[in-house]
Amino acid sequence: MASSACQIRTPMQVKKAEFVISNTDIKKCPAPAMPEYAFIGRSNVGKSSLINMLTNRKSLAKTSGKPGKTQLINHFLINDSWFLVDLPGYGYASVSKGQRLEFAKFIKKYLENRENLMCLFVLLDSRLKPQKIDMEFMQWLGEKGIPFVMCFTKQDKLSKSAAAKNLANYKKEMKQIWEEIPPIFLTSSIDKKGQDEVLRFVEKTNKLF
Fold this sequence. Notes:
Layout: H1 4-8, E1 17-23, E2 36-41, H2 47-55, E3 73-78, E4 82-86, H3 97-113, E5 117-125, H4 132-144, E6 148-153, H5 160-175, E7 184-186, H6 195-206
Parallel strand pairs: 2-4, 2-5, 5-6, 6-7
Antiparallel strand pairs: 1-3, 3-4
């Protein structure tokens, strides 16, 4: 995560955020001329709400009470200097098996081939114990050498002690597979917890592009 020196500085301010394109074909994605950060997670993890919170926009990403709303690769240009990508999730119960397989196909192609992808934010529900589908997905990312961070959502939905307990369970589970646990962010779209930390991370990582 961001160093202590970075934490002292005022985080990046999102002054401009605009939709660019939606598609299922990596060839139609914007030219890879800027750093890019993608967000993905299971059904109902709060992805759209988190994206809106990070960008200080109420409806940049479409939120819905119905899981599976995002079915395309959605590119947003932030501050005219980096891309934020809203990816279809995984584990949707409300879509057919054929649709899930189709989603998986173009998501994996994007993740494996998008050369300017600096980091993938894997969203995890703070209220839940480690889920098999999340663990398997992160293991796949590790096998493919795709850089990612663990981003725990809905921190406002449980007490500090419960959140700490669940986080400890995740770390314990991860250590059974990983020599080093990826960076972790704790977030809430309600009280904007984690906004500064995530934006500092992006600002710092942009310099590596």
